[in-house]
Amino acid sequence: MKKFFFILPVILSLACQQTKTGSDSMGTKVSSSDTHSFSQPQNAVVKHLDLDINVDFKSQVISGKASWQIENIAKAEEIVFDTRQLLIEKVSLGDDEKETSFSLGDSVQYLGKALKVRIESNTERVTIYYRTSKDAAALQWLNPQQTAGKKQPFLFTQSQAILARTWIPCQDSPGIRFTYNATVSVPKELMAVMGAENPQEKNAEGKYRFRQPHPIPSYLMALAVGDVAFKAIDQRSGVYAEPVTLQKAAYEFADMGKMITAAENLYGPYKWGRYDVLVLPPSFPFGGMENPMLTFATPTVIAGDRSLVSLIAHELAHSWSGNLVTNATWNDFWLNEGFTVYFERRIVEAVYGKDEAVMQEVLGSQDLHSTLEDLGPTSPDTRLKADFTGRDPDEGVSDIAYEKGFAFIRSIEETVGREKLDAFLKEYFQSHAFQSVTTEEFIAYLEEHLIKGDKSLEQKLDLKNWIYKPGLPANALNIESGKFQAIDALLEKFKTSGDVSTLSNVNRSTNELLYLIRHLPEDISAPQLTAIDKEFEFTQSGNSEIQAAWYMLAIRKEYKPAYPQIEKFLTEVGRRKFLLPLYKEMIKTPAGKVWAKKIYSNARPNYHSVAYHSIDELLPGR
Description:
Blueprint: E1 21-23, E2 29-31, E3 45-56, E4 61-71, E5 78-83, E6 86-93, E7 98-100, E8 102-104, E9 113-118, E10 125-132, E11 139-142, E12 154-157, E13 177-185, E14 191-194, E15 207-217, E16 223-226, E17 229-234, E18 237-241, H1 243-252, H2 256-267, E19 275-279, E20 288-289, E21 294-297, H3 310-317, E22 325-327, H4 334-352, H5 354-375, H6 393-396, H7 399-416, H8 418-431, E23 435-437, H9 439-451, H10 455-461, H11 463-468, H12 482-497, H13 510-518, H14 526-536, H15 544-556, H16 563-572, H17 576-586, H18 590-603, H19 609-618
Parallel strand pairs: 3-13, 18-19, 19-21, 22-23
Antiparallel strand pairs: 1-2, 3-4, 4-10, 5-9, 6-7, 6-10, 8-9, 11-12, 12-16, 13-15, 14-16, 17-18, 20-21
Helix pairs in contact: 2-3, 2-4, 3-4, 4-5, 4-7, 5-7, 7-8, 8-9, 13-15, 15-17, 16-18, 17-19
């Protein structure tokens, strides 16, 4: 999942706070080191949520109450929650709901407002009555025409990174975990699902009850409401989708059970019970979101040939790296994504073979080097341990967390051997299950359980260069794919002869076609593009990854036969990974910028706020 950087500085008083730590009654360390949250968990921290909400499609508002069980660690006189775009109606304490006073702080860009609630030393429950705003950033309300079925409206949430506070008043930090129960009332013709234990069919009441027995951070809170149905894959996995999409989705994700088994064979038991996938309408801004027990997935991975299901392997891997063991702050984001990319490729290797995994590794390395070139190899934003203070952490991440994080783990494998690394990772996931970890805590664990005082190994691993310095260390691996080397040979013949037929022997797998598109010669002519398009049918492809790569080339080379499909793609697809590069390529020319603004003015209502806020930066004053 490629992400792009937008540097948006803002002065935050939080950035100047010193870290304070404390421990709850279970001995779990809590701190105030997260500059993206107003909460002060070292004083008073949430433990369990009872959520009771109503979803109103007519007003596009969620309303109800969030009843929090808390622990007043420091016997403090207040507890602090994160809110943004919320109307707080009243707050009460205890089971008898004695009303208490509260105040909202000044609005801070990206962070919203601190909700400070007056509590007593023995307070164990705080209930907040609230309503969301119509433009709450986490919520996307879709009319029937914006869905696959065209009959019913749809709502879905996207809480990562710091958007949970726009639909639930919470302590919105990945270092704070809680269990929850929820009651969600929706129109009777629709069904609600969450990142929790889910129903598998609609009920006549229009009221759905959920339970998440494992402690999760707030960014994994997830809700979707729509005309969805369920189809089982096996005893512990299945697919939710709109009825018109369900059969295609079930076919596409038929290997989920094999993936879960492969993952367990690598790093231990799947601890979440069920693993299901919800296929969302096309406006979903990401490839997937690893909400516990229910991955939210883009329909752009439904290619008809199961060629893009590595995305499911990625989101499944998050059930260990991310959901089970979580980055403590967004500056530690690489701990979620670097490990997950490594784990994803191990699952792919186990289910689909080593060639497939190696091709993905090479393509990922190319993405990383492209990001390093864009940001500059000495940019501080190319460090694994990031500093997103004063920025929206979601806008701040890039391929650095994903692919440089992967390259670091891959270098450890090369140094100590796969068997030793697997044993270490399995123990790491088990010993830190349902906990949040900082980069420094991971380093300490690595030094104690893998390096074990071996100075030579410590020097070879080069931890500080990998984690705290920009660019790539000297021991970064250069991986080659035999499949891609065969394409290189065919491309050399094409460059010499100019005859497109020399490329006809390229295998038609997704990764090989992506590599081919990326490596076509820069001086390729319009007639050659036409001939290649005729040979491979790239413009009319139903594979979103191939479409995006080909459309980038078509824009750069002004290959106009592809323009109608490019416009259709940008209007129908909301996945930010595809949108941003295409719009960025378009605006490089005056004519392209006019074209981009025309398309965007029509397409923007179909995009989630996560996507359109990024594109607004590219096309100001549209």
